[in-house]
Amino acid sequence: MTALEGIAYGFGVALQPGVLIYCLLGVTLGTFIGVLPGIGAMAAISLLLPITYYITPEAALIMLAGVYYGAQYGGAVASILLRLPGTPQSAVTTLDGYPLARQGRAGVALFVSMISSFVGSILGIVVLVLLAGWLSRAATAFGAADYAAMMILGLVAAATIGSGSPVKSFAMVVLGLILGCVGTDVNSGAQRFTFGQTELLDGINLVALAMGLFGVAEVVGNIRDAERQGSPERVSFRQMMPGRDDLRRMPGPILRGTGLGSFFGALPGTGSTLSSFLSYALERRVARRPERFGQGAVEGVAAPEAANNSASITAFVPTLTLGIPGDPIMALMLGALVIHGIQPGPMMLEARPEMFWGLVVSFGIGNMLLLILNLPLIGIWVSMLRIPFRYLYPAILIFVCLGVYSVRGSAFDIGVVAVVGVAGYLMALARFSPALLLLGFVLGPLIETNLRRALLISRGDPLVFLERPIACGFVIATAALIALSIWQARPRLRRNTGESDV
Amino acid sequence: MQRDWADIWGGAVLALTGLAVAFWAGTRLEFGTLRAMGPGFFPSVLGAGLALLGTAIALPAWRRGAAPVPVRPGDLAAVIAAILIFGFGMDRLGVMLACFLAVLVASIPAPRSGWGWRLALSGIVTALTVAVFVFGLKMGLPLWPDP
């Protein structure tokens, strides 16, 4: 199927009323979640996972994807109006978005962020179509050793490239891999860490784990903090019209941001947060007057928003063509597909074209819907920011419990949410990343299976990872990342004796 | 100077978890060989790795200072209690009572005094929950306690 045929086919899937309605639901909910500080796309997607049992797999994927990129649009609203990032990806937008709002140009900042998000997404879709076709052809040559090496590279990249201490990040990845071992071993049938609980035979429930780590932990952390935000000013559609000077400043940053975003989004393990930070840094470097940044530069809003939206689209490339989630949110998406019995991989474009092309077209439709939702209706979202968190969070908790319970009618899983919730709250306080734990949890069984298969085929010879050219490339990249993070850690250790490390 | 207790405790808990995992997997599951890995291979190696990483987090933190982490045990307790009341009360108390009680308990740490709004919120959330989940999505849950 060529790209044009595929897109025509995708329209047939995405325009079905039963799919379109879930696309609209997903992007609306995503914007809502993104606008509210304190609840991220991660928590929202885990909340929605149980609902996806009742709908078709393509509608499920399209809805969850809508929540993800919808949250990127909404996240900018709280960042600009309150200097509170609605999502981690929009944290950079506060740097110039909030100063603009203080100068009475909040409407313009919102307009710039919405248009940049839209253009970034649309260009991201083009990159997705081109890359996915090429990669799924290349990936048919992949063997078990190559898959195992690539997934390990993904985990190492996620642990070393993100913010925070790499040792703590590695520990979280390993803990996630261990939790992924719980349940019945696929090869031998042995029970691992089940302690006689029949509920654990299929492993720890992904929905319960994600809700505990993100839903509960974020609620507890925000009970007090989300109340201190104050109220935003009203913004009307008319105030959003940018001046000629603003319009002239937008195209360059949007294109550079999109370029960076689509590149880093498609790499496993890096993701959209990194690309928005990098694109901001790039704009400041290429600017003729870098001192304007931080004082309300339009470029400082346009570039990161274009970057994080294009990255959130191209992040689907490794997930759908290789079956390897690039970031923890993609890990949840992969989990949702596996629940429906669909194993993404190189064959998916051929075997399940309705999933891939339906999703691609839904990206286009969803982004149009978001533009409509966010430009004329911006006032509604701004007034959402006035709802105090104290009225929302008890309802969120009830929804968490019923969501987990609905998966298989098990009160045991609600107990898991409570236990994981305590751990997740403490982890967030001590700056141990729960997102990396989840990435390890989802990738763990895939890595173990491929590792065992690769070594069985090679008769126990570990050199297979160096003899196969594809695997060898991944191994070299992994080693380089580890070496780089050790090299970066050394001077910091010496400087930091006796000083706090934040 | 305040030590970096968050990393000391975090690292220590992770190291002990790793040791326990490696011990449990090493004694109860077959390790196998590199060619034919047993079910214990992956968890044993990972457990040992976690023990090392945990130690590498905790030890340097001992000589390092950090701002104390503001733990809010009250907020955490109220939220967890609400989850448990609802999760394990649904079958016995029925959705009405379990939901009302859970929302009431969850709202205790909210930074606004008075019980009036808390009772009202509990009533509204309970009504919405019953309307959406019991009547709307038709989840088979008892409304009232079983006599």
Automatic annotation (TrEMBL), chain A:
Domain DUF112: 20-439
Membrane-spanning segments: 19-49, 61-82, 108-135, 147-164, 170-188, 200-220, 260-282, 356-382, 388-407, 414-443, 463-487
Official protein name in the record: TctA family transporter
Keywords: Membrane, Transmembrane, Transmembrane helix
InterPro entries tied to this protein: DUF112_TM (IPR002823)
PANTHER family with a match to the protein in the record: TRICARBOXYLIC TRANSPORT PROTEIN
Any Pfam family: TctA
From TrEMBL, chain B:
Domain DUF1468 stretches: 9-142
Keyword Membrane: yes
InterPro entries: DUF1468
TM spans (from-to): 6-26, 38-59, 79-105, 117-137
Keyword terms: Membrane, Transmembrane, Transmembrane helix
Short name of one Pfam family: TctB
Keyword Membrane: yes
Protein name: Tripartite tricarboxylate transporter TctB family protein
Organism: Paracoccus isoporae
